[in-house]
Amino acid sequence: xxxxxxxxxxxxxxxxxxxxxxxxxxxxxxxxxxxxxxxxxxxxxxxxxxxxxxxxxxxxxxxxxxxxxxxxxxxxxxxxxxxxxxxxxxxxxxxxxxxxxxxxxxxxxxxxxxxxxxxxxxxxxxxxxxxxxxxxxxxxxxxxxxxxxxxxxxxxxxxxxxxxxxxxxxxxxxxxxxxxxxxxxxxxxxxxxxxxxxxxxxxxxxxxxxxxxxxxxxxxxxxxxxxxxxxxxxxxxxxxxxxxxxxxxxxxxxxxxxxxxxxxxxxxxxxxxx
Length: 274
Known about the structure:
Blueprint: H1 6-22, H2 33-71, H3 77-109, H4 112-118, H5 123-136, H6 138-153, H7 163-184, H8 188-207, H9 215-223, H10 226-235, H11 243-272
Helix pairs in contact: 2-3, 2-5, 2-6, 3-5, 3-6, 3-7, 3-8, 3-10, 5-7, 5-11, 7-8, 7-10, 7-11, 10-11
């Protein structure tokens, strides 16, 4: 027969009484947003590094190939600026919109959201961490595409530093849209289809010069989140850029990014509780 000290019994009885009195045991504090976001970001970055690098090469070569094809049609001027800016942002669209829609669609279908739902992390940290990790892969491909396009069309390289603002803002807008599409799609095949359609829209409406588009197509172009990143980057190729318009386009792109990421967070909560 084992002997249990009376202090343990009395302590256990006291704890049970306190639990009964309070109605429930006190839980530990919930993880804060920024530390949780950093943890999810590092985990997603290490997980996707090997699998996504080949796709990043595909996105970069695709944008470079489109610019080479357009070189036979566009000589220079404003149309060349639109082509280079659109092809550069297309790398962001391929990864942040297309691949993220596929990732969240597969995560929802395979039950992977249940894993994140059991962790004490805010839903916004999951969405922002995954979106930031995927958008980070676009940086080298976007820079290489922009430099190649400037050399190909004879555009100045002086203001390429504006990509420091264009990449995260356009990436946030497109990543939020891609995550929302993947989380709201009832099947992963539909999420893949929607991601492909979104990337095709970014290709057709972003790379082709707007002056040659019908009025209805221009209206659809204004609804695409990446358009304002393209416009902001294209304006910097002029001899005297109007920085007020550049900042205005970047502000619109940032506002759309906030809205799209908020929608993606809501879609994550909706998918996680089902």
